[in-house]
Structures are given as C-alpha cells and as structure tokens.
Fold this sequence. Notes:
Oligomer: heterodimer
Distance between the termini of chain A: 26 Å
Strand content of chain A: 25-35%
Mean pLDDT of chain A: 89
Number of strands of chain A: 15
Order of helices and strands of chain B: HHEEEEEEEEHH
Largest interface: A-B, 39 and 26 residues
CATH superfamily of the largest domain in chain A: Nucleotide-binding domain of ferredoxin-NADP reductase (FNR) module
Distance between the termini of chain B: 61 Å
Radius of gyration of chain B: 17 Å
Largest sheet of chain B: 4 strands, antiparallel
CATH topology of the largest domain in chain A: Rossmann fold
CATH topology of chain B: Jelly Rolls
CATH architecture of chain B: Sandwich
Number of domains of chain B: 1
Helix content of chain A: 10-25%
Shape of chain A: globular
Largest sheet of chain A: 7 strands, mixed
Number of helices of chain B: 4
Shape of chain B: globular
Strand content of chain B: 25-35%
Strand order of the largest sheet of chain B: 1-8-3-6
Structural class of chain B: alpha+beta
Low-confidence stretches of chain A: 1-8
Mean pLDDT of chain B: 87
Low-confidence stretches of chain B: none
Number of helices of chain A: 6
Order of helices and strands of chain A: EEEEEHEEHEHEEEHEEEHEH
Number of domains of chain A: 2
CATH superfamily of chain B: Jelly Rolls
Amino acid sequence: xxxxxxxxxxxxxxxxxxxxxxxxxxxxxxxxxxxxxxxxxxxxxxxxxxxxxxxxxxxxxxxxxxxxxxxxxxxxxxxxxxxxxxxxxxxxxxxxxxxxxxxxxxxxxxxxxxxxxxxxxxxxxxxxxxxxxxxxxxxxxxxxxxxxxxxxxxxxxxxxxxxxxxxxxxxxxxxxxxxxxxxxxxxxxxxxxxxxxxxxxxxxxxxxxxxxxxxxxxxxxxxxxxxxxxxxxxxxxxxxxxxxxxxxxxxxxxxxxxxxxxxxxxxxxxxxxxxxxxxxxxxx
Amino acid sequence: xxxxxxxxxxxxxxxxxxxxxxxxxxxxxxxxxxxxxxxxxxxxxxxxxxxxxxxxxxxxxxxxxxxxxxxxxxxxxxxxxxxxxxxxxxxxxxxxxxxxxxxxxxxxxxxxxxxxxxxxxxxxxxxxxxxxxxxxxxxxxxxxxxxxxxxxxxxxxxxx
Lengths: 284, 160
C-alpha cells in the first residue's frame, strides 16, 4: 500500500476566507467548527487525515485536522482544542464569523488501500478528531471493510469527544468501540486505565489488519509495542505526527523530524518510515 | 473448591497461568473457589482484612478510593486481571482500595494465607506463583505510570 502525497495546490500560501456555519461545543475546551465558503466558489476537497491552516485574524495561524465527513464535501469541519492564543480565539468564534484557511494539506490515511481488510483505529484525546473522517468513510462503505475496531482513550470522562457518535458507531455492524479514561469521576461507569490495555480484548487478525493511530506520541509508542507483540507488520501501521507545523508546505523547517517535514511529507506516515525518529531519536 | 478439570477449563484463557504446569494447576485448583458478584456489589472495602486473592474470569471490577464525597475509580480490571494480590504478601494489612463489580463478574478466590503456605512448602510452585504475580504487578505499575504522565496534556511548546 502507498500513501499518496500532498494535495495539489496552486498557491498554498494564499488563505481564503470561510464563514463559520455552526459551532458545537464538544468539551469544556474543545469545539467543532463547521465552515462554509463565503462566496460561491466552494471549498477544496479533502481526504481523511489532511489538515488546514486556520487563521484567526490578528491572532495567528494554526494547523487543524479536518474532522468532518469526506462524503459531505461542501463543508469543512474542524475540531479544535483551546491550548493557546490562536486555538483559543478559534474556539471562541460564533456562527457567522469569518476566519481564513489554507489547505487542506498533507498525506491522508490509507482508507482506499485498506479496503477488504480489518481496520483498527487507536486514538488518544484530541487525536480522535483526525481519525473521525476515516470512521465516517468506513461506516459509509461498511461492506468494503472487514472487522472495524476503535479504541479511544482520554484524560477524563468530561474530555471525551463525540460521545453520542461513539455510542452510535458501536452499534454499527461488526464494529467494536472501546473507550477508556485515565481518571473516572463519581458517575463514570466505564473503563479506567490506558488505551493499550484494550488490546487484550481485541481479536486481531494481524495479517489482514491495517492499524491507524493518532494521539500523544507516548501513547502511540505504546500502541506500536502492542501491535508489534500482535505481529502486525510495520508496513500496515500508520500514524499521524502533528507536531510543530507552521508553514504547512515544508519551507520553514519547524516540523522537521529526521529527513521528513511532517507538514509536507506527513502528517500521516507508515510506522516503518517513522519508527527511527520517534521517542526523541532524531539524530541522523 | 473446584475440581482440577473444572479449574483448567475456566482458566484456559488466563495468560497469567499459561506457564503453570499440570501439577501446579492442581495445587491452585485445591485452593480455588469460584465466586460471583452482581453489578454494583462491593467485593471488599478499603481496610478490609478479607485475606482473599482473586483472579477475574469474566466481567469487570472497579478499584476505587473513597474521597470525602464519593468513590473515585482508579482503574478497571477485567478477565485475566488479578485483584487483592497484597493478600499474598501481607498477613495483617487491610485492602488498599475498595473493589466494586461494575458488571456481573465471575472470579476465582484463593485464601491468601493458604496460598502463601503452599508457596513456602513448594518452592517451585512458589517461584512460578511469584513470577506470575510479578508480571501482573509490573503491568499494573506500567499502567499507573502512564496514567500519572497525563500524556493527553498539550506540551508547552505546542501551545498555539
């Protein structure tokens, strides 16, 4: 399987204005913005896993993964956690506000190449957002894929994303959804512990499984250990490395990791490409 | 007590017992009692001197600690997990946490003192038992360390 590279953009540095059609509050610090074109020009298509550079006027620009349904192309949806000035400004937008956008950029998840195979998704925290388009795609084409498993971990119940959808997804045919938190509250009746512990409950067929993971790098390293123990080949493991991206086109070098620019060559990589560079092993 | 055959049958999927030979499984079977807990049943409370060591066969158990206002779940345990392993080591101490069945749960209960005596009397069995226990404790420690990491927090350098 190969991951096709970048979106063909005529002028990737030119932002376009988009209007915020709706805002959904996901958690105390995370919102999902649905954007629509300001004029009749339409929005560029995206592939699951790609990201855009979103610009809040007068504050700055940040990379945000598209979290919407690739089957609904006239809207671009972004789930944003407020962690700083720019993301905070974006999370506080209201319907009708205008922001700017560049992209979408980057390599996608291998949803087409995974047809006919089992798919395992492992997400941590806000990392579920870049994987949500994969979920939409697979559920829309459910018969084209084998077993579908989603493992999701978050810090606490109040920080779980897309809780209603998680429940709905688990009702899909031959689909297993397991959710855990690091710290449960008084009313939490679900799993408490790390997401990697779920591997004990998943009957993987390693030869026919494609795994995709997105979350904190530490979590992804532990996921890789489990997948390795389960004999899933490195070539069939994909991860999204969304670190330090600034320009989105490989000019500025902020996101360089080993020989790769994460924004241009990624953010989705095969583990076989990235394993040498994870965990701080960045020396050439 | 359950028969050796029953014991082997109900524990065949338990990774923790994979390395036990037939004679060691027989010794464990002599000490095991199958128990069931209904949803929300408190299996033991913090400080209880129940003296039992459990191996969960199916279902789910929450390990809880009581705050001033309510119980907080620290970790959930499932089939293949051991519970109350301090009963194997500590003759007089009470349970460190409260355990609550989150779903209907089936487990094997072992008298900790008798299991300890068996370990002392048969060092080969004791060594196998302690290796299994160490493996469980190591896994539990790894999980706890990862939970303490707060890995879902955004690093300062990535705040934008």
